Description:
The complex is a heterodimer.
Chain A: E1 12-16, H1 20-32, E2 36-40, H2 43-52, E3 57-61, H3 69-78, E4 86-91, H4 96-104, E5 109-112, H5 117-148, H6 159-176, E6 179-187, H7 190-197, H8 199-216, E7 223-226, E8 231-237, H9 241-257, E9 260-262, E10 265-267, E11 271-279, H10 289-305, E12 311-313
Parallel strand pairs in A: 1-2, 1-3, 3-4, 4-5, 11-12
Antiparallel strand pairs in A: 6-8, 6-11, 7-8, 9-10
Helix pairs in contact in A: 2-3, 7-8, 8-9
Chain B: E1 3-4, E2 9-10, H1 11-17, H2 22-49, H3 52-68, H4 72-86, H5 90-110
Antiparallel strand pairs in B: 1-2
Helix pairs in contact in B: 1-2, 2-3, 2-5, 3-4, 4-5
Amino acid sequence: MTLTCKIRHPFPVLVVEDNPVIQQQLKIILGKEGFEIETADNGECALDMMRDRFYPIIITDWMMPGMNGPELCRAIRDQDNPGYVFIILLTSKNSKGDIVQGLEAGADDYVSKPFDKSELVARINTGERILELEHSLKEANEQIRRLSITDPLTGCYNRAYLSERLPRELKMATRYGQCLSLTIFDIDHFKGLNDENGHLAGDDILRKVTALVKETVRTDVDWLVRYGGDEFLLIMPNTPISGAEILAERLREAICDLSVMIRDRRIGITASFGVTGIDMSNGAFRISGDSLINIADGYLYEAKKAGRNSVRAGDQVES
Amino acid sequence: MGRQKGTGMNIKENSSALGLSEEEYLYLLKIFADTGMSDLRKIQEAIVQGDREMAANAAHSLKGAAGSMGLADIYELSSDTERLLRCGRFDEADEVISSLEDKINTFEVQA
C-alpha cells in the first residue's frame, strides 16, 4: 500500500446537491464521521471541480437544476478519470424503474431521501472497499508488468521488452529526424570466469557490471537489456554513434577498474563493445531493430578479434 | 431548549434522531427557513407564469429539505403541493401553499 498515514478516509468525498439544507447537513454529518467533504451545487459544477482534483467517491442528488444526477453519472463514465469513481445517487424517487434508470446511467448505489446516516455511511464504506480492491489490483498489475519486462538477476530489461520498445524508439527517431545508437557488449572470457569461480561468482559479476553501466548512462533516457547470458544491449535515443563510442570507451575503462572480490581474491574483468547507430536527420530510411543489433554484433566480433577489452564502432551495413 | 414555541416541534428529539447537536440542527433550520421561503416564492412565480414543472420542482426541493430535517408536517404539505402542481391543480395547491408559508414563517422568526 502506498498510503503513508492510514487516516480513515484519505480522500475527499464530493457532495453534489443543490439544496443548501441537505448539502450542509451532509457536510456536518459526514464530517463527523471523519470524511473530508467538498460540495458542488449541480452536475456542471461537479465536473468543473473534477478537472482540478480527483474525487473517487461522489454522492449526488438526482433532481438538480441544469445537469441532474443521472446526467452527471453518464458524463463521469464517459470521461477519462485517473481511477474508478464510485457514485452514490441520493434520491427521493423510489420506484424500481427510477432506480434502474439511475444505475443504468452509471451510479453504483443509491440511498433514498430522507437519508439515514448509518445507511449512507455504510454505503460509502462499501465504495471504499471497492476502491481499495481496485487499488490493490492496479498495484498487482503493475508488479506483474514490471516482472514481465525485467531480467530477475540483473534488474535490466529483458528481451520481451526489447522487442516491444526498440521498434518504438526507431519510429520516434524516424518521425523526429533524430539519431539513435545501440551498443552490444559482453564480458570477456565469461565462460572461463564462471567455470573457474562458480556460477554464483558469475552472477555477482553480471550484477556488478550492470549496476555500473546503469549508474553511468542517462537515467530514463538510455536503457539496458540483458540480451543473452553475458551479452547486454544499451540503447541510446537521440545519440550519435560518436557519442555512443565515447560512452562505450568510458564503460570499458570503468569495468577494468571494477574490483570484484571472490573468496578474498580480486578478479579482473574486461568487456568488449560493438557500437552502431542510425542518423535520420538527413532523411528517414527503414531499418529494423534486428539489423541494427546485427551490425553492432559485427563490431563486437571485431573488438573480440582485436584482442578483447576494446571498443569498435561504425555504421557499416553487414556484408 | 425543549419544545419550540409555535412550531410544536422538539428540537432535542429531531436533532438527535439525525445525529446532530442541537446547535447544528438550529443552524440547518435557519438555512431551511431561508431556502424554504425562496422555494415558496419560486412556486408562486412559476404558478403566475403557468409553469407546472418549475413549480413542482420547487415544491420537490422543499419536500426534500423538510424530509431531511425530520419536519413531518411540512414534508406532508409540500408533498401534497408537489402532487397538485404536477397535474396543474393550481387553485388547490394555493391553499396548501399558504399553510406552508405560515409554518415556515414561524421558523424564520425563531431560528
